[in-house]
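Two folds, back to back.
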Amino acid sequence: MFRRRYLAVVSVLILACGLALTACGATRHEDDNTLVVWSLQVQPERVAITKQAAARFTEQTGISVEIVPIEEAQVAQLLAAAALSREMPDVIGSVSLGLTRSFDQDGFLDRAAATQVVNDLGRDTWSDTSLGLSSDDGQQLSVPSDGWGQILVYRKDLFAQAGLAPPDTYENLLRAAETLTRDGTYGISLATDPSDPFTQQTFESLALGNNCQLLNDQGAPTMDSKACATTIDFYGQLATKYSPAGTQTVDTTRAAYFSGQVAMTMWSTFLLDELAGLRNDALPTCDECAASPTWLAENTGVLPLVTGPDAKGQARSYGEITSWVVTSSASTSDSTEFVKFMMSDGYEQWLSMAPEGKFPVRQGTRENPTEYVDAWSTMDAGVDTRKNLAEVYPPETIETLQTAPSNIGRWAITQGFGRYIGPLTAELPFAKAIADMGSGGLTAADAQAEMQATTKDITER
């Protein structure tokens, strides 16, 4: 399989270099002692922070580092091309769980190096969830650095006025959606875009909350389970009865909540700085927001988990853990030292890029077990305006957010079949079924049958 993948990238090698000439040039040669680090954090301010941290590492160790920003959508193609030319980078930062599994399957990762970093710094200083999702057969595939979770946000003021309980269960959420859909407003805005991974992520989050799993421990598809039937029917009801008409996207779900048109939506924790009015191109627009830009944030409740009736204590929520990976062609000693630095002396600097979406999965050190969690709580978030989230959100919300990464689950990875995430994300079969169900083209039963058939097809390839 590894050789077939190599042959497949020959035809795209020139294209890959054209997409990112710096990446094709920024690889380590045998006579060059510079450590080459690709980073998927490409925004200019984040690149600057990464380079500042790398400069501190060089000052401490004497090891030169070249930081190369790479777009996430291009990294798989570029790494395959670099592997073919025997010029891979030494380290890659901000690698998602899906990409980590893909790179490992292709033989691009140094498992031993990642395991060494975690063991040297102390396994007990990481959250169990982050280590579990980034390991295989007792070995680390990567060094987990930070995470974000899918959350449900809701209007606390409207819930209080209607005497509604927080929407932390399927039952409470459905009751609230029904009650608050009235007078031209809607209970919830729920993703139904067939072409966007966001739709599939939202569905997976609610599915995991009901212990609806993609596969069992033997790798057999289980989308035909009772738990999945409950989730699919639940999602269909919300999308067709209590959400605005038409295709709902990552942008329209946010806009509907920000305008006051809906009482709930599901989004990632990256919503929090925008909700607080800290990003000019995504400001809250509700009537009350004109007088007070933080009004909506102050009247928003945050839930990291919605539990379904079939969960039986196994409820989880969708989220992402991003990692540092050491490649199989790296200069191991220098690479592991760099990753150790970025997870210790450089860790707070790394998290400070976007604390609303970079929650520390290494909580502290052996000497100070809460050092990084404590530091995170003091960091300013935002783009055009910077402000500590604790200045906007109440203490209970901040505490909830800090626990969000511990609720993360993911289809297939926990059963040991993370290799199926790639095709599922690339083809988006569930997003398409959800869109058809939301438009009335499929019944919930038909959508379930389609999801089961698609999963079976992917696992049998």
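---
second:
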Amino acid sequence: MSFNPVLIVAKVEKPEWYKQTARYAQSEFGTAIRQLLTTLIPYLLLLSLMVLTIRIGYPYWITLVLAVAATALFARLFIFFHDCTHGSFLPSPRWNRNIGYLCGILTFTAFHDWRRSHAGHHISSGDLDRRGMGDITTMTVEEYLAAVPLKRLAYRLYRHPVIMLGIGPLYYFLLRNRYPSPGAKRIDFISVIATNLAIAAIAVAASATIGFSTYLLVQLPVLIMAATLGVWLFYNQHQFEGVYWARHNQWDPWRAAMEGASYYRLPKLLQWVTGNIGLHHVHHVRPGIPNYRLQECHDAIPQLQAVRPLTLRKSLGALRLNLYDEERQQMVSFRSLKTGRNNVA
């Protein structure tokens, strides 16, 4: 792995309460396997039921209803994959890798390549001078105003909800993940090739048994909805009112974790679906905490509870925040540039 989140925080003084988080960075084999089995088996059963509805000739809307449930389980499988890339899902590095590859194939993401790029995200989150490592592209107001018209247009299109939550997620999971990310090492290339071959093998096997069109009618809606949910979650984890950004010479990794990553308080069902990843500030404070212990850690440490939560309703307004204003140290909308920088969002 090219980046290690611990290295950056080791260079600054850790807050006293940070020591308390160590006890929660302990993986539990039984819990992890139980999570995996109670997610993977229902997911495969739902896909089978979707195939059955198509083969029997039921209205496609019935298939799509099942696809919504399958999407929830797809999202949980990606959370397990995410934990595996941090080496936190299971106590064994070997089994974190093995389960990571399995969940990665099922969620169209290469294990080693994504692990490296995601680690880069953790050590640079909130740093204006190190943007571009596994994050949502964000321009400052000054950069946007200085950009040529074509670049401004491209950025506006990129940040438009139709692109961000429509075309973008499908492109990322279906196409972007099919080739290595910048800076890929040999093991990253191998993981991408192995994942692509496994996905192709599944598609070929499905074509030979249920037919390629049936495979697409089953897998594609699940992938689209899950990818959209994933991008929406990631967007709200680091793009919200009051988010922390700073230039590298002033960048504080603890503020980046506590103020640059949101506490996205979701309804219980959505919290289960997303594997507690809404407690993203806890995850950035100590990435080694598995999903099944994030809530426990949050509830035990008052400093983590002091972070102002982002509600589902308030998160909808985050889509209007498109640029970072370094003068005001806050995210602002494109519209604020027309009405004056004193009027934001």
